[in-house]
Amino acid sequence: MPFIQFPFIEVPKELRALVGEPTPGTRAYRREGTFKECGEWLEKLGEFYKGDVGLSTSSVVLFVPVSRASVYKRIKEGKLTAFFFYVTHEETRLFGAKRRAKERPFIVVSVSECKAWAEEIKRRVGFVDDPDESLFKESERLLQAGGGDEPTEQEAKEAREFTEHDPKEKGNRKVKYQKERSTIYEDYKQQDMLYLLTELKAAMASPEKAAALRRRLRKGVEWDKENKTWKLKEEK
Known about the structure:
By secondary structure, this protein is of the alpha/beta class. The protein contains eight helices and eight strands, in the order αβαβαβββαααβααββ. The protein has helices spanning 16-19, 35-48, 68-76, 111-125, 133-144, 153-164, 183-204, 207-219, and strands at residues 28-33, 53-56, 82-92, 98-102, 106-110, 175-177, 221-224, 229-232. It is globular and about 55 Å long.
């Protein structure tokens, strides 16, 4: 197989004021600030990269058949450019001591890099659009398995720690990482993903199934108490 250089996006030095410095040995650029600054950060990234940067780690699956854990692992290994933003605020501890509280980071990556990753997996597993159906199905099965990019349990744990916590602050008692973002934010995020994935299913379904899915979309979503997640309302 010929060597193909991965087409990383360029992160010029003049952009460092916006995105921060990368964690050594990686392409993970970390920045922190207020919610307002986070919004400006995302908007300016979109403008600079002309819409190529802004994909969340949970949405990478739209381009690459891998789990979010695999995305984290690739970022940790320096094989994917990622921009982090930690929303922070000052917290007063017992006896008036101050410390910086940081929420789980917002992380965005490049669409073009994700597409290149998908092509990399296809080459690795020998994916070809072949008229021989059995060969095609075998290649498709391997592609759906992520081409060997899925991490072990230990690798997934280490990759998640790397993405949620800035390594340079390890052991710093003046910084506290909060476990979860606000419930409202997570609810909106889950609902948005449900709408997006349903639209994708509709786009690939038969006309009859697509019409049924879109009818349910118009009805909205409801909370599934048993599975503790959002789901489309049932047709009656």
